[in-house]
Amino acid sequence: MPQFAFRSSHPDGSARLGWFTTPHGTVETPAFMPVGTHGAVRGLTMEEVHAVGGRMVLANAYHLYLRPGDAHVRALGGLHAFTRWDGPMLTDSGGFQVFSLAKLRTVDEDGVTFRSHLDGALHRYTPEGVMRIERNLGADVIMQLDELIAGGADAPTARAAMERSLRWLERCRVEFERLRVEDPDAPTPAQALFPIVQGGTHAALRRASARAILGAGDWVGVAVGGLSVGEPKPDMHATLEACDAELPRDRPRYLMGVGFPDDLVEGVRRGVDLFDCVAPTRMGRDGTAFTPDGKVQIRRSSFRADRRPLVEGCPCPCCTRYDRAYMRHLFAAGEALGQRLLALHNLAFLHGIMRDARGALADGRFAGWSAAWLARWRADAWGAADPAA
């Protein structure tokens, strides 16, 4: 069996079923990847993440480079051994984190100089250095270093960042190939480098980026970055459609940093196979739950004596063992258990959407299922939030 492979079936428009094979297993797609920024999905064990449906997780090269250090992780056996996750794993290059530092970094053609958000120490990020960091960490899929821009950036700004990202991709590719030959004892010897399509919300730039990427190498998969950064959702959808028309159908497509429930369904409609986002766990810790009828804040006073599960039929530990009244109490009392349970619920909810999407695709009913799902989600059946505690 090859180290990496992708096959798909049951196309419905741009949506499709898929199977993405990596050195650490095969992921059925479309799929959502929980985010374990520091090598942990915050507050949860890897066993819990797997139990609610997680099959591939993401970690962040920037954060692990700063603490505990990529060389240290490698010395301890690599990310899989370090985190006790034995399934497929992806590392983001950390480009988003570096570029979000704003006042703490400067960008030039060679790379980025930035100060650590931890202690203010000065660091240098280059495409070659990022490849060495991600080689040490040992994820199955690793991302190029790219230049990110704010949502709504004008075309000249977007073009400059897109073209620099292409130049950096070539440097990443050369170093990636060198390391594959000269560093065969890395924690995961066979890795896949994913390029990132950039270009803001400008369709022509996205098309140009995709074409240049495909002309630069034979990639295992391709990512679409720079979305969900403040642009209107119709603009995100139009951008995905522009990318869909250019990207090959025989490779997995990864939409970076997008993970609200309706965004997953809309993304699958437009040919996306893999998603990631911190939203489900972060919002869970803040008391916001995903339900088929939209988002709901568990602190609402109307839940004070409500003995029903948060979502009827949901298989997560929150919904199978506890009721709304108890969950509201946990948040009112500041108990960490509430945060953990709601984070698990939100992850289970997103994995459930992806499972239902795969089932609808297999049965040839995806178009109708997705339209009905989105209509219910957007109906706002919960009404205005009542956060009273």
Question: Could you name the CATH class of the largest domain?
Answer: Alpha Beta
The CATH homologous superfamily name of the largest domain equals Queuine tRNA-ribosyltransferase-like
Low-confidence stretches: none
The helix/strand class is alpha/beta
CATH architecture label of the largest domain: Alpha-Beta Barrel
Morphology call: globular
Polypeptide structure, described:
The chain has 389 residues and is an alpha/beta fold. It has two domains: 32-277, TIM Barrel, CATH 3.20.20.105; 285-378, no CATH class. The chain has 15 helices and 17 strands. The strands form five sheets. Strands 4-15-14-13-12 form a five-stranded parallel beta sheet. A four-stranded parallel beta sheet has the order 5-6-10-11. A three-stranded antiparallel beta sheet has the order 1-2-3. It is globular, with a radius of gyration of 21 Å. The protein starts with a strand and ends in an 11-residue tail after the last helix. The model has no long low-confidence stretch (mean pLDDT 95).
Descriptive key words:
389 residues; alpha/beta; 17 strands; TIM Barrel; 2 domains; 15 helices
Brief digest:
The chain is built from 15 helices and 17 strands. It has 389 residues and is α/β, with parallel strands linked by helices. The strands form five sheets. Strands 4-15-14-13-12 form a five-stranded parallel sheet. A four-stranded parallel sheet has the order 5-6-10-11. It has a three-stranded antiparallel sheet with strand order 1-2-3.
Task: Walk me through the topology.
Blueprint: E1 5-12, E2 15-22, E3 25-29, E4 31-34, H1 46-51, E5 57-60, H2 61-66, H3 70-75, H4 79-83, E6 89-92, H5 95-100, E7 105-107, E8 112-115, E9 122-125, H6 127-137, E10 141-143, H7 155-182, E11 192-194, E12 196-197, H8 203-216, E13 222-224, H9 233-244, E14 253-255, H10 261-269, E15 274-277, H11 279-285, E16 288-291, E17 294-297, H12 317-321, H13 324-332, H14 336-362, H15 366-378
Parallel strand pairs: 4-15, 5-6, 6-10, 10-11, 12-13, 13-14, 14-15
Antiparallel strand pairs: 1-2, 2-3, 7-8, 8-9, 16-17
Helix pairs in contact: 6-7, 7-8, 8-9, 10-14, 10-15, 11-14, 13-14, 14-15
